[in-house]
Amino acid sequence: MRNARDVLARYYLYANAGDWERWCDLFADDMVMDEQLAGRIEGRDTLRSMMAGMGELYSSFENIPSHFLVDGDEAAVVSHISARSSSGKPIEAAAMNYFRIENGLITYLANHHDTLPFQVLSQS
Question: What is the mean pLDDT of the chain?
Answer without folding.
Answer: 91
